[in-house]
Every structure is written in C-alpha cells, then in structure tokens.
Amino acid sequence: MRESMEFDVVIVGAGPAGLSTACRLMQQAQENEQELTVCVVEKGSEVGAHILSGAVVETRALDELFPDWKEKGAPLNTAVTEDEVYLLKDPKQGTKVPNAFVPKTMHNQGNYIVSLGNLCRWLAEQAEELGVEVFPGFAASEVLFNEDGSVKGIATGDMGVTAEGEQGPNYMPGMELHAKYTIFSEGCRGHLGKQLISQFSLYKGSDAQHYGLGIKELWDIPAEQHKPGLVVHGSGWPLDKETSGGFFLYHTDNNQVVVGLIIDLNYKNPHLSPFDEFQRLKHHPVLSRHLKGGKRVSYGARAITKGGYNSLPKMTFPGGLLLGCDAGTLNFSKIKGTHTAMKSGMLAAEALFEALSNGDEGGKELERFNELFKDSWLYDELYRSRNFGPAMHKFGQLAGGAFNYIDQNWFGGRIPVTLHDNHPDHAQLAPADHYEPIKYPKPDGELSFDKLSSVFLSNTNHEEDQPCHLKLADADIPLKQNLKLFAEPAQRYCPAGVYEIVEDEAGQRFQINGQNCLHCKTCDIKDPAQNITWVTPEGMGGPNYPNM
Amino acid sequence: MKALVAVKRVIDYNVKVRVKSDNTDVDLANVKMALNPFCEIAVEEAVRLKEAGTVSEVVVVSIGPKACQEQIRTALALGADRGIQIETDEMPESLGVAKLLAKVVEEEKPELVILGKQSIDSDNNQTGQMLGALLDMPQGTFASEVKVEGDKVNVTREVDGGLQTVALNLPAIVTTDLRLNEPRYASLPNIMKAKKKPLDVKTPADLGVELKAHTRLLKVAPPAERQAGIRVSSVDELVDKLKNEAKVI
User: Fold this and answer.
1) pLDDT of residue A448
2) ipTM beyond cut 0.85
3) Cβ A459–B188 below 8 Å, yes or no?
4) Using CA atoms, how far apart are residues B62 and B60, in angstroms rounded to an integer?
5) From 3.30.9.90, 3.30.930.10, 3.20.20.480, 3.90.220.20, which CATH number describes the A78-113+209-308 domain?
6) pLDDT tier, B169 (very low <50, low <70, confident <90, very high otherwise)
7) What class of enzyme is it (chain A) (predicted)?
C-alpha cells in the first residue's frame, strides 16, 4: 500500500522550467500573503546532477524572475565577449563566416556562458528559501488519474526492487503525491510527458516533433589559451550533406572550455555514430587549437527537443501542464532553450496562482495558460523562428542557412511563409546496405577518447540490483529486424554504450547495459521500430554531472 | 539509553575524484557530496537499536561548514532525533575531530557512541580510537554486529582472518564496518519531518577546543595512468617479456 501526500502543486523535474514555476508561484503567494504548498521531485541524486546544456544563456526570463539575480549570487560569471561562426569544409579547412552574414539570432552579445547545472542548483536554493519542498533522488515514475480522467498527481518509484522485480531487503514503496495541478517539466522526451502527449492527443494539429542529440565535454585548458567569453559555433565537417547539426565551443571561467556537437536525430545513415563524429571533430584545427595541452574533465549527453513552434504540442490538459523541453519550447534559431523553458514555467505559475487563489480545486484544463502564452514574448519568439529548422532540413545547410539569414535579418522572422517538416526522426533511417559502414579513426587519448572512458567521466551509476529501465516492447526486434535492416543502430546512436550485440557460443544476443545510461533518451527517440521505452530507474541513479 | 552518532560530509562515492590542476587538493567545486557511507551505517545501527527499544534517543553530530547540515538532515531523515553541528570552515584533523567529539560526549553523556570506522575521503581510521583514548572509554572497532546486553555491549569485529567478539562496559565506542547493516532509504515524509527536527549549531570555541594543524598538505597527485597493454604473438615472446622486460620471472 502506498502512502500519499497532498500539495497544491507538484512539479516533476528540477530543471529551469520546473524551478521557475516553483519560484514564481511562491513569489506570488508571498506578495499576496497566501499559503501554498509546492513540491518538486527530481530523479537525479541532487539538483543539477542530470542537467546538461551548452550553455549560452539569454537572461530575459531570469531578469524577470529575479531582477536582483546578480546580488543574489546567480552563477552567471562569464559574459560573452566574442562570437565566431565557422563552416568546416574538411578535416583541415574551415572558413570563418563574416559576422554580417550570420543570422541575427546567432549573435550573443549580452548573453552569458554558464553551467546550466549550477544555475539550476542556484534556482533550487532560491526555491527552497521561498518555501518550496525540493526532493532530489525521487523519480516520478507514474502519472495518477482521477476518476474523471484528469491528472491527480504522480507516484514516485519504488526503491529497493531487485533485478527480478521482487522486493529486496531495503524495499521502500513509492509515494503518491497528489496535487490540484501537476507540472511536467522532465526535459526532452520526458517519459511521463510522452505518455500524457499520447493519452491527451496533445500533438493533434502539430507537425512531427524533431530532436537532436547533444554530446558535451568540459575541458581544463592551459591558462595562456584561455579567452573567457569567447563563443565559437560552426557546422559542416565531419557531418555529410544529408546530416545536419553543429558544434559549439565556449570559453567559460576557471580556465575551462566546454565543447560539444549536436546532431539532428533525423539523420539517415544507420552507420553514423554521433559519439565518434564528435570525437573526430575535435581534431579539426578550428577546435583543437583551443583544446591542445588540455585535459578532459567531464562528459555527458542529452537529447534536445528542437521542433519549435510548428511541432509544439498543446501544453494544457485536465489537471496539469507540460512545460519547457518536455513540451518543446526551445528556440532552435538561437540554439537556446533555457530562457524559453523558464518563461514557460513563469507563465504557468501565473495561470496556476490565479486559479488557485480563486479557489480552484484543481483537475481542470488551465486555458488561461494558453492565453498568457499567446500574449507573451515567448510565443512571439518561437513563432518568428518557426522556419529555422525546417529550412535547414528542406534546403540543406547552405541554402537553408541563406534562407534563415534572409528570414531572420531582413524579415525579423516574419517572412510570410511557414515551412513544415513532418517526417518523424525515427522513420528517417535508410537500410544499412545503402551506405558503406563508416570507418572512424581510433581515439588518440589526447583529443579523442573511447566511449567507456567517456562514460566513466559522467559519474553515472545505477543501483546494480534493479529491473532494467530500458523496456523493449518486443524483445525480438533488435536482432530480427533492426540488426538485419539497419545493422542495429542502437549500438552507435547511444552515446553511453548501453546497447551491444554480443556474440558467444549461444549465438548473437542483444545486451542492454542499463547501468551506463546517461538518461539522454536518444534510444526512445531514434529506434526505428519505436520499440525501446525509457522509464525511470530507481531514484538517485544516472549521471552525477558537476558543472555541466 | 542515548546514542551519539558522528557523521561526516564527504565527496559522493559515485563521483570520480579529480585532482586540481595545480595539485593543491581534490577538486570539490560543485561536486556531489554525501553522507560518508560508514557514517550512514552508524546512523542505521543507532536507529535500529532505537526501533528495538534499546536506545531511546539518537543524536547526530557533524563538524564542518554550514553545508554539512545537509548530511545531518539526511541522518535525521533516516530516523535520528536531533542534530548538532559544530561549525568550522577548517578541515580538522582526526585528533581535532576527536577532541571536539569528546566535548560533545561530556555534554551529552551518551551510553553508546557510534562512528564510521573511517571516512572515504581521508581514509584515516583514527577518530574512533582517539576518542576512546581521550575519554578513557572501551572501544569496539570494525563492528559487523552490535548487541547491547544490560550494561554491556558485545561487538563482533572484523579482524584479519576472521571475527572477534569483545564485550565492552557501557558507555562505549563502536566504529562500524561495511557488513554491519544495509542502510534504509529515507522516505519523502521522513525527509519533510527531518526539516523540522531540532539542530543546534556550536563552534569549537563554544566547546573550548582550539583546532591545531599537526600536518601540512604538500601535494595531491592522481595515480599514474595505466599504460596500454600489448598483444604478444607467442608463449615464447610472453615468457621472454616477463623475464627480460618486466623481470618478474
């Protein structure tokens, strides 16, 4: 029997969207001298442990939420000083794009290079000071419904269940957290969000959602190479013409550099390995000149919801809201999702507070949120960048880039056409025999590394004796279908080496090393048969990212 | 009967420890911290003794900066009754810790003091023993079983080559080993309750202890990286290499 607790608002996920909702709710409650009970559950072992982002952050939402964030010590320490954009032609050559030809949305004056994990740690401190209950180490594993079908809350996962699914010696049943309204802000492809989207048909009328996979490393570099505030972006090599994506390299504080590659998950070639593309990318002189002599400190990966305006699901349903990257509020033309996720949370908090202070007992669809959203700068921003992603997909990097330059710099994103890209990412893979397998260079141990030593640096860990949290709907599909047709791409798209085809005397078998999982959700997105479902492992499990 | 449990905030065991690039110390910037696993076992044992009716109150004490209140709260969520933080930004050595704890023991007068056998960061394995010497109390270290019987406690110790059981007169000091118990998970309601449990803050000066450094940290260096292996083509080559290169046979 599970125990239950009652709150006014329960928030799933301590990221920018969830914590902004919590903070804004409590600020309003204090201004109006009202009691409000708000709780945030977070599956990571601490707030920030599962947060991974570039990140160059625009402060618009933060300025609104905490105008005095500087005095309060928010960890935004490195203002952007310089923007560089490159087109890489081949392993040796790259062209710097003159600033005048860069889409306006890619300019970063006034923005800050931050560790989003640390920003979330700070936001959680603010939330707790305002009276929010923040519970890291508890994974929301189940949505609870009222009899009328509205969302009643969530249940946290059971702890201490053995691999066989039995109650171990430390078994502790999950808790039911009931709320008038439940906020789902799990980040890209949240597993409860995915269920709600299908249950309430939230994608009705939207284009297919699109995703990218971001892989990131943090480096210590020699002080003489360090240029705090320098932001470098680029695209091209090593990705071929039909694969879109781009890299980032930011000089942050403390003689550190973050470097990463985002690959759109609509890539076609099943032999492609995002991890290995990123490793070889770092050998390009445009990047290696920043990294040489340095030492890699951390590694991680996370999927990105990037469909934007055209793919945005309905964010309201009876008893709850879907916010931030769980819905897809990222502005891909800026490659930024923090300020938009935060704003979605703040708007939600306003709609929620209005309802609750008028005696709303919960369980309704908060139409007011949709009105506030439509009137906000968030909507305007997403609307104006609606063509950015589809243009790249339709016209390719160059012509798409030109379209985006014209749309963003001449029309301010208000070009009177809307481009659509309605092919889901998982359906894009071509059969393996249409392509030659890609021969990736061996890692040199200085700039490039193998997968396992990389995963090691993510500090990822899962309690050993627990059921596998990567569920196959049909256990035969990996070998019988995916291996035959696509050379089982899970072996390559997973940036943590979770999936392996192992051969022994008994023959071939599909092995899932769930312990390595970085919670990036790529498998749930890219599996061509949509056969893999990512569910929450026991709370506390997963990466422990510092400063990511 | 009152039990006092000492707990320490340490780097989480899941985190791969990294040395600062200037070799001055381990990098702790935004690294996940946690309750020292041996201390967690100590808290669990005290709580089990309370649940069994042997102990009536469990007091946890931790020494460190304000952040170590997090670990005290964790212990309170596991079932301890109240906490004491001795606030200092210094990293006291084992002797300093033992001196501070001795003062707390004099004030609180517990019958049982339970500590982890060592912390996983400095790995000294000294505090419990030093505390025993300072207080002239019997000690049972590396405990894998603790049984209170009347005014005695029987402690089964994990020693080289087997187990040794000692009977100690109370009040006594016990330091925990890994096999003593498997700590429970803190439940959500207990975490919420823990926020409301009493937590006193004291300073070393309040206790009349002056912390002194007896050692100086000169340098911290990561272990040498393992060299890549090589593949040998024959047994003869292997034997040759073991004989002439590795010089092990």
Assistant:
1) 97
2) no
3) no
4) 7
5) 3.30.9.90
6) very high
7) oxidoreductase
